[in-house]
Design a protein that fits this description.
binds 2-phosphoglycolic acid; nine-stranded mixed sheet; six-stranded mixed sheet; 16 helices; binds manganese (II) ion; 22% strand; binds guanosine-5'-diphosphate
Amino acid sequence: MITNPNHTTPAPATVPGSPRVALEAWVARVASLTCPDAVVRCDGSPDETARLTQQLVDEGKLIALDPERRPNSYLARSAPDDVARVEGRTFTCSRTPEDAGPTNLWRDPDAMRAELDDLFAGSMRGRTMYVVPFSMGPVGGPISQLGVEVTDSAYVVLSMGKTTRLGPEVLRAIGAGVPWVATVHSVGMPLRDAAGTERSDVAWPCAETRYIVQFPETREVWSYGSGYGGNALLAKKCFALRIASVMGRDEGWLAEHMLLIRLTSPEGRAFHVAAAFPSACGKTNLAMLQPALPGWSVETIGDDIAWLRPGSDGRLHAINPEAGLFGVAPGTGADTNPVAVETIAADTIFTNVALTDDGDVWWEGLTPEPPAHLVDWTGADWTPASGTPAAHPNARFTVALDRCPSLAADVDASVPIDAVVFGGRRSTNVPLVAQAPTWAEGVFMGATVSSERTAAAEGTVGELRRDPFAMLPFCGYDMAEHWSHWLDIGEQLGAGAPAVFQVNWFRKDQDGSFLWPGFRENARVLEWIARRVEGAVPAVESPVGLLPDVADLDVRGLAISDAQLDALFAVDPDSWLEECRRTEEFLDEFGGRSPAVFTAVLDERRAALHAAA
Ligand code: GDP
Ligand code: PGA
Ligand code: MN
Ligand code: MN
């Protein structure tokens, strides 16, 4: 039943008046729909952060960690069924289903607005509604965008304070007429119903019904029922990828699921690399890489999202629109990612990790041996004999980027991209590294990536699925159109376009062990990529791209046999022909809208595989 006469708020652009007035009018409309007890306008100040933190601790929603061991850090435990993005409840409400494409769940926008009206009506009763103005990228930057998130979760406000630029300068820019994206979030658990019956709060409020809804044309996001990560921090996946990808299509730029690094060679040449891997496939680790090769260094610019725009110099320029990290905790340890370990030594919110008896945190992979006793992510006693993971596999840390010791000093500036890298988690077939001979073949490589599912989203872990550009859950419009957009941008860039590569750190031997040591040793692959960009080393042609000449991949000091190296680069014609068959099936899902050049690339690949068979 619709308990409020106001229809769900119109898009901000259709609210009359100046943008600041439009913001106020929009906030008022959301409040009159959701009926919070109070409206608080956030500015991200230290006082506000301290007040909200204390409030969450008092309410039992955050556990303060021992300030000696983990200063200014907190643990949150989610509801056991609210632990990852919910792709099955994520909707793209473009005007037509064709615009959403076959990889998105489409709903008619008007029908969805009516459903949202019912859900959000009174959804904040008994709670405070926070208004969070934020900037993606530095305020006023050439690739930056503004947004506002309205939320009834103080945990979300604190997380947004770490991962976005939240502050009064955003309101000033909105007041000066800069457009902004409107996002609304409710955990969907009012503390009072329409009749006035109260219910008590819980440590992690959420609802059984969940909706993560994007309206691409009106640049709006509505999220209901979840408090977790990409479902609730709406600046991240919902805005910076789903909505921004549509803005980029319309305005000639790209919003991508990519880390950004600056790699510097021993000769002092800087290479900027943008790499797209699916969730939980190694972006944060590569972004913080400490090269195992002497003389090489890596500076971190971003670990999850890049916005890229062709510059007047004919090159592709990129920024990290975020200001913080929402990183996977399990597997993060001193031997795999020491930079992350240092980054999260203080000022961090941990979610769904285990609590130690001395008030610190632990997760699988933090240390080689687990402590003898822990409280696990569900709040239950845990010992190594428990037989269950102490931390949830998608447990996360939330921390501001400025704590990262390898952060680039000029992180606010845009950087010209030298290499685009696509990756995934493939135990078979895909070589350690290959270069695309042309831009079109690079776009094909990105479009046809498949990867084994991880715990970052609901679904069966390990199952192979297509994840084009690592954007399957994040592209706000028809994926085939996204590929054409990439081809157009390549055409525009011409000789200034980045080189394109594919990597796979996850190939396994017959016993199921990783063939490649990964982590800091991935610098050896980055070195080859940089040398290819420089034109300093030749490459060997294969049916699936240009491979390194074994002599050019520096494996000195690695315990890796020639047989293992061969296995890392093996291209088995039969299994690749089968892969081609499945690729064709996948491209057919786009009903003739997949770029014509892909057919040519696939035909060529098949001919080369037949010749090699
Ligand atoms: P992201 O979600 O894409 O940012 O991925 P992360 O960097 O957080 O890594 C996800 C998981 O993959 C973690 O458990 C890592 O320890 C693991 N991982 C990352 N890089 C590598 C690698 O090079 N080799 C292997 N075997 N595992 C890796
Ligand atoms: P990541 O980001 O797993 O790519 O780090 C969060 C997510 O994709 O949900
Ligand atoms: Mn991600
Ligand atoms: Mn990450």
